[in-house]
């Protein structure tokens, strides 16, 4: 009989993939498309959602549209910092040119009984789901924020008017190298505590 002691249970194989996820910077074509892209977006739509508000909005930026978007980011950066306009504009154009696909992730915030922070956190959970899906399908990606995420002009360009907002951009593509080391996992003991009934809540 074949030795099957080394075979992992399917549920553990899935966890192995999740535990091996890392942010990947240098990306190249191909970016996800077709069924793969649909699966990635669908993963985002499975994020926790208090009140079933479905606050998630994803804007896919790819192909020639990337170049036009890079120009808009350059204009926004120049408006924020006129003294460094040329350098900043080129920096953002170059970033978009070397990124096969961007997915802008935002929350359409609805005032009411559900706190705003929960709606924004739901959009953040959607972003994480999509990053995990990218990794599990063999692509690479990174969650990028920075000044453009918080710029009202960039938000309006992508259809987000306050209180709605971007939570960031996901880069997506194929890793340039498959040999980059996976960062060491943080020490679990430094981040996890177990509350006990006899503990005091006093400061």
UniProtKB/TrEMBL annotation:
It is an enzyme of class 1 (oxidoreductase). The keyword NAD applies. Keywords: Flavoprotein, FMN, NAD, NADP, Oxidoreductase. Its EC number is 1.-.-.-. Its cofactor is FMN. Residues 19-173 form the Nitroreductase domain. Transmembrane segments: none annotated. SUPFAM superfamilies: FMN-dependent nitroreductase-like (SSF55469). InterPro entries: NAD(P)H_nitroreductase (IPR052530), Nitroreductase (IPR029479), Nitroreductase-like (IPR000415), YdjA-like (IPR026021). It holds the Pfam family Nitroreductase. It comes from the Bacteria. Belongs to the nitroreductase family. This is Putative NAD(P)H nitroreductase. It comes from Reyranella aquatilis.
């Amino acid at each position: 009989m074949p030795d099957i002691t080394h075979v992992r249970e399917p549920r553990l194989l899935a966890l192995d993939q999740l535990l091996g996820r890392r942010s990947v910077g240098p990306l190249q074509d191909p970016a996800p498309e077709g069924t793969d892209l649909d699966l990635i977006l669908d993963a985002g739509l499975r994020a926790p959602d208090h009140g079933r508000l479905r606050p998630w909005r994803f804007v896919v930026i790819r192909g020639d549209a990337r170049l036009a978007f890079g120009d808009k980011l350059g204009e926004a950066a120049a408006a924020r910092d006129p003294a460094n306009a040329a350098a900043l504009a080129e920096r953002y154009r170059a970033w978009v040119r070397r990124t096969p696909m961007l997915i802008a992730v935002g929350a359409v915030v609805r005032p009411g009984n559900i706190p705003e922070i929960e709606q924004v956190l739901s959009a953040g959970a959607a972003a994480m789901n999509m990053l995990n899906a990218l990794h599990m399908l063999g692509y690479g990606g990174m969650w990028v924020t920075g000044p453009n995420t918080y710029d009202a002009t960039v938000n309006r360009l992508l259809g987000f008017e306050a209180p709605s907002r971007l939570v960031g951009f996901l880069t997506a593509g194929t890793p340039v190298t498959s040999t980059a080391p996976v960062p060491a996992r943080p020490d679990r003991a430094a981040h996890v505590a177990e509350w006990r009934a006899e503990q005091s809540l006093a400061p």
